[in-house]
Specification:
The chain is an alpha/beta fold and about 525 residues long. It folds into 4 domains: about 110 residues, Response regulator (Rossmann fold, 3-Layer(aba) Sandwich), CATH 3.40.50; about 150 residues, 2-Layer Sandwich (Alpha-Beta Plaits), CATH 3.30.70.270; about 100 residues; about 100 residues, Homeodomain-like (Arc Repressor Mutant, subunit A). The strands form 2 sheets. It has a 5-stranded parallel beta sheet, sandwiched between helices. The longest helix has about 40 residues. The protein is elongated. The chain starts with a strand and ends with a helix.
Amino acid sequence: MIDVLIVDDEPKLREGLRTFIEWEALGYRVVDTASNGNEALEKYAVCRPGLVIADIRMPGMDGLQLIQRLREQDPQLHILILSGYADFEYAKKAIAQRADGYLLKPVDEDELMEYLVGIKAVIEEEQASEEWQQATKEWTREALIQLLLTETEHTSEERRRLKDRAEELGLLWNSYQVLLVALYDELTESVLYQLRRTLAETFEHCGRGWVFELHGQAGVLMKEPLLAVEREDMYRSIQAAIGPGVEFTAALGTRASSLDEVANSYGAARELIKLRFFLDDGKLLCQEDAHSEYEEGCSEVLPSETLTDQIYYAVDIGNAKAVKSLVRQTCRSWIAEGCSEAEVKRRFVEILTSVMGKGLKQHPELQQQSKPFSDMLTEIYHMRSIRALYDKIDYFLQQLMSNLGEKDKHREVKIMLDLIERNFSDNLKLETLSGVLNYNSAYLGKLFKNETGEYFNTYLDKVRIEKAKAYLEDGLKVYQVAEKVGYTNVDYFHSKFKKYVGTSPSAYRRHASSE
């Protein structure tokens, strides 16, 4: 709608113009009226109309003076003059001062409507032209920013032209830094608009930088590096602009001291974005985050089978602290090894699947819970950050731990005896259990010997042989029994069996079957 101010010293004419024309149907809205030039100036300052319809003859200030005063405030203002027959020559002077036209009193409705249609077309054309000029200037600035971000090699002549163009567009500064914002999901138009508006309000409106879009990401080329104390507030502003439920990462590039170094700042920010899975912690990422805890102080990478055993035993005895420690040590080892996000997730799913399989084997009643556990494993692939991954794995193992039902505190030896009884077929080692129970293996071995009267390996062998006797009595073949009780070498099983039973497995089987 185009706002209209009507100015005339005759009340009937003012109200007549206000009421007998269907202004809104023509795209106009009468916002106010005035009875003289001085009042018109006061009301113009308040309502800032796009069109003023004014009488040429008024007390105090005539129409020509009013036009001159209005033009000082807005050279583009549109004005229609009202005049009588006697003022025709006077009206022509008003036309010479760029009034849009004049109407003779009494005003002809059709003639006024014809003027209004024409003026509206002119105003719309002017608005479109102004918007185009503004957009063109912004596009030109953004195009230059995109060029600076993506191109690093320039000849001396190219550098000179870039410098001149940057100066024309207000981009020639003493320092620069790139702030980059990337979303995990597709950047919708509404989200992008809100994000750009927030960034513009924060940086463009106060002259601190200019907003850009590149490769599906939004960012700011900043005039001065963002201070450390500003980072948290900036992150929250971006978060508020994007809206709830939309995950994103924001990163700061390195400081640049010239146009030639802007691409380096952008490149550094992009590298941080690529590492967001390992680094993102609900804050603006910066260069010091690149030297992460995951790259230093990592233990040796252990075989998957060993890790599976350690995690399972910790779950089985209800040691939540050991479970969390194992998960994090494992992940740090893999990252130090150079594993990607996808590889870390894949390895964890494999190990947790094996842990779940062991639990189901020992507790068949858990089979009814297999689908929820499998769904949780699938969700691991969708975790957005290392901390979210930890939370998901911790929850998975906590649920498994609860279902296994082993949450009470036991003495270490009782725990070991229970583990041996239920896992005698596994490759149980004192060293593995000592890690799970947070004891020195020599001390734990001595503790076990004092409580049971047997060394750990001796006790394990005896349990296995007792289980083997039961299998042989059931008619299983010797090599099958050896495998079932945890001996991969049949000859070794034969020697152990004869040592503790006094006869060979085959003889024992024949004797059992003859009875």
